[in-house]
Amino acid sequence: MIKLNGVDFRYKKNKPLFENLNLTLQPGFIYGLLGKNGAGKSSLLKLISGMLFPDSGEASVFGFDATARKPAMLQDIYLVPEEFNLPAISMATYVKTTAVFYEKFSHNQFSAYLAEFELADDAKLSTLSYGQKKKFLIAFGLATNARLLILDEPTNGLDIPSKSQFRKIMASALDEEKVIVISTHQVRDLENLIDTIVVLENGKIIFNQSIAAISERLAFEYNLNGLPNEEIIYAEELHGRKAGIVRNISGLDGRVDMELLFNGIIKDAGKVNGQFAPHQYEV
Ligand SMILES: Nc1ncnc2c1ncn2[C@@H]1O[C@H](COP(=O)(O)OP(=O)(O)OP(=O)(O)O)[C@@H](O)[C@H]1O
After folding, report:
1. Quick one: pLDDT at residue 82?
2. Which CATH architecture has domain 2-202?
3. Phi, psi (deg, nearest 5) at residue 55
4. 204 lines ligand 1 (CB under 6 A)
5. Residues forming CATH 3.40.50.300 domain(s) in the chain
6. What does the buried/exposed string (b/e) look like for 125-143 if buried means 16 or more CB atoms within 10 Å of the residue's CB?
7. Mean pLDDT by 10 residues, the chain (283 residues)
8. Is the whole-model pTM more than 0.90?
9. Are 270 and 252 a contacting pair, CB within 8 Å?
10. What CA–CA distance (Å, rounded) separates 270 from 232?
11. Is the dihedral of CA 237, 238, 242, 244 positive or negative?
12. CA geometry: angle 104, 146, 11, nearest 5 deg
């Protein structure tokens, strides 16, 4: 389990980013971390992975204090950052020199992920395109079999076939031991992949719900024209029609439109959260 408990963090004096932040991530689930630019997503991921230290409060990863950065913890964490530099060496050399830090690294899995992403395994890293480099890092990260896999904007730079390969690979890589956290702006890329949505805004978690709870409570409609305003939780213009979120009164679980949901939460998190039992979210 990953736990942030009463975390305060600031980059600059007098400008707190996180104040008393609490978050629990359970193994066996894929979390989607969403938020506008500057909301604090990357900082949160760095606190979880021991790359930033809380000013007060605790960040614990599988029982380890994240700030202690013990090798036993670090070999169980892999973070694919949004921006990265890869050295001008071959894939084989990279794997030979880096995989040793991950006790559970599987060469077979690595080859299978590369094949799934249609990447040649003999390439020199500096000659790969941005999207290919990203796929290489995702394949490497998965092959480490780290229990905590953090992906910051993983689909950024991936072409359309690669995005569906990515979804397929991630879904198959999850097991009951692993926690996968995916931070993104490309909310549609997370559809049918994540189990829980966590939304950050100005350093606060303003929404934290499972997809199952969301599809049980909310319905996403694409023609709300004529529906009384009091029945609408959120609406926006889409192709000349009013699309939005209403209460799910059918009792059937429907598709969660991540973009409408995100927009609705950003517009009025209180209204969206009001559809869920109060103890199920934290603000
Ligand atoms: N090294 C730093 N020094 C000072 N302030 C920083 C630093 N890194 C981030 N910040 C500030 O912290 C806030 C959160 O930044 P962060 O990168 O965590 O946001 P984000 O949600 O990941 O944004 P984006 O979606 O644009 O990547 C921003 O206001 C940013 O300016």
Report:
1. 87
2. 3-Layer(aba) Sandwich (3.40)
3. -70, -40
4. no
5. 2-202
6. beebeeebbbbbbbbbbbb
7. 96 93 96 94 93 95 94 94 90 94 95 92 89 94 96 90 90 92 89 93 95 94 87 90 91 88 96 79 49
8. yes
9. no
10. 14
11. negative
12. 140
Per the CB < 8 A criterion, the answer to whether 49 and 79 are in contact is: yes
Q: What is the pLDDT of residue 278?
A: 60
Ligand 1 close to Cβ of residue 46 (< 6 A): no
**CB of 38 sitting under 6 A from ligand 1:** yes
> Which pair of tokens denotes residue 155?
């689909």
Q: Which atom of ligand 1 is nearest to the CA of 35?
A: 21
Per the structure block, which two tokens stand in for 263? 């927009």
Contact between 174 and 180 (Cβ < 8 Å): yes
Query: Pocket of ligand 1, candidates 21, 42, 199: which has the most ligand atoms within 8 Å of its Cβ, to mutate?
Result: 42
Task: Give me the residue label for tokens 């910051």.
Answer: 152
Secondary structure (H, E, C), the chain: CEEEEEEEEEEECCEEEEEEEEEEECCCEEEEEEECCCCCHHHHHHHHCCCCCCCEEEEEECCEEHHHCCHHHHCCEEEECCCCCCCCCEHHHHHHHHHHHCCCCCHHHHHHHHHHCCCCCCCEHHHCCHHHHHHHHHHHHHHCCCCEEEEECCCCCCCHHHHHHHHHHHHHHCCCCCEEEEECCCHHHHCCCCCEEEEEECCEEEEEEEHHHHHHHEEEECCCCCCCHHHEEEEEEECCEEEEEEECCCCCCCCCCHHHHHHHHHHHHHHHHCCCCHHHCCC
Ligand 1 pocket check for 11: Cβ under 6 Å: yes
Burial category of 224 from C-beta neighbours within 10 Å (exposed 0-12, middle 13-18, buried 19 and up): buried
